[in-house]
Amino acid sequence: MTHERVWRVSETPPNTLQYRVDGRDDAPVLVLGPSLGTTWHMWDRQIPELTRQWRIVRFDLPGHGGAPARPFTSVGELGDRLLATLDELGVQRFGYAGCSIGGAVGLDLALRAPHRVASLALVATSPRFGSADEFRQRGVIVRTNGLEPIARTSPEQWFTPGFAAAQPAIVEWAVQMVRTTDPGCYIGACEALAVFDVREALGRIGVPALVLVGSDDQVTGPAEARTLVAGIADARLAVVPGASHLAPVEQPAAVTELLTHHFAGIVHDTQSALPAPPMPPISAPVVPVAEIAPAGTDPQTAGAVRPDPYDTGLKLRREILGDAHVDQVLQDDFAADLQSLVTRYAWGEVWSRDGLDRRTRSCITLTALIAGGHLDALADHTRAALRNGLTPDEIGEVVLHTSVYCGLPAAESALRVVARVIKEETTPQA
After folding, report:
1. Which has the higher per-residue pLDDT, 309 or 209?
2. Where are the alpha helices (DSSP H) in 232-335?
3. In the structure, what pLDDT confidence band is assigned to residue 252 with cuts at 50, 70 and 90?
4. Which residues pair with 240 in a beta bridge?
């Protein structure tokens, strides 16, 4: 007989996730992770069969499905919250299956907590989801227009046209899931995916992995799946015909059969205490010994070598201005020295300081560029301001304020540039 235990907690501790448990208490544990914009209900059609053998733990992303709206800044942070949730349940070892960003969590856990993960299934997953520019652009659109444009277009991203036409109720369910998601948490997830990249670390994954992808998935399709299979030592590929991004919803029987077969070998004690080695970040920066001053001394007076701010500046410049822009300016060999100077000192020394947040620095930068009449740079930094969290209305207020102190002609010229860029950046793609 299957016994069901269900928790739906409205006030979860800050470091945990909203979750639900189905199945026998004494069964081995299988954790199911959702895709961005969905809830744990995306796995509903797998539950009757999977609970025959496993205790199923499903979780919601923050701000999804009524979960507390506590945005996360990285996939690793989401993984830490999941582990804290499983610790509350007394679960030490588990199998894990995740879709899209849920699959990214599985990759993160397999890399940072391999003693916890017994086996892995990666559904519609990639070691690198598109480009950072793409996800930051999506965040700008949500911040400006809300989630309605994303909700309206989600079905065509998630399902094949034939399925969408034949299943209008499921399409409406999908739209409503996105509509009821907290926009701030959705934007936070986009930011997390923008910086997620484990391509160089795949060889360190030592657990058996099933890489499952819909044949018609246009988001993370067979090409991305093959990258995972090529990088993970013990991985096999399963392509599900007639499925797009949400294969568990569109082809539930096929996905359930694949998961059942893959996880058949899980044998572990979910209550046993296992040694827990520290969980470092996937790539921690290495500081040369020469750059470290003795404890209790001031590096400026101790003769320590000062770290080169170039790498910090380049990372920050890409995050704020976008990879496409930075790649373009760095291709100019004639300007290489100037661009190195800009990266090292404007971005590595000034933008990276803790004294002001990025929104404030964007306001200052826009004002300075308007005052100087630097309209090309103003266009670039208007895009940056949107990425840094300023709304179009707030940017408009900056321009209006500068009209008093920089002059009406300067503000009018700036407004034309700003309006053009805002329209380009915040108009949802058809």
Report:
1. 209
2. 247-250, 252-262, 310-321, 323-330
3. very high
4. 214
pLDDT per residue as tens digits for the range 131-145: 888 898 899 999 999
- The closest of 69, 62, 72, 79 to 17, measured between CA atoms, is 62
Residue 321 has pLDDT above 90, yes or no: no
Q: Which residues, including other chains, have CB under 8 Å from residue 15's CB and lie 6 or more apart? A: 80, 81, 84
Q: Where are the alpha helices (DSSP H) in 159-295?
A: 161-166, 168-179, 183-195, 222-231, 247-250, 252-262
In this predicted model, what pLDDT tens digit does every residue of 18-76 receive, in sequence order? 999 999 999 999 999 999 999 999 999 999 999 999 999 999 999 999 999 998 989 99
Report residue 360: phi and psi, to 5°.
-65, -40
Residue 306 exposed, middle or buried by CB count within 10 Å (0-12, 13-18, 19+)? exposed
* Percent of residues in the chain assigned helix, strand, coil, to nearest 5: 55, 10, 35
Q: Which of 190, 250, 193 is nearest to 216 (CA)?
A: 250
> Residue 191: its pLDDT value, please?
92
Q: What angle do CA 106, 107, 110 make, to 5 degrees?
A: 85
**74-118 pLDDT tens trace:** 999 999 999 999 999 999 999 999 999 999 999 999 999 999 999
End-to-end distance of the chain based on CA atoms, in angstroms? 50
Percent with pLDDT over 70 in the chain: 88
Q: If you compute the radius of gyration of the chain from its CA atoms, what whole number of angstroms results?
A: 24
What's the CA gap between 388 and 321, in Å, rounded?
Answer: 10
Spatial neighbors of 199 by CB under 8 A, at least 6 apart, are 127, 128, 227, 231
Residue 275 has pLDDT above 80, yes or no: no
Average pLDDT, integer, range 236-263: 96
Q: What is the tally of helices (H) and strands (E) in the chain?
A: 18, 7
**In angstroms, rounded to a whole number, what is the distance separating the alpha carbons of residues 321 and 280?**
28
Residues 6+ apart with CB under 8 A from 256: 45, 46, 49, 50, 248
Token duo for residue 319: 């995050």
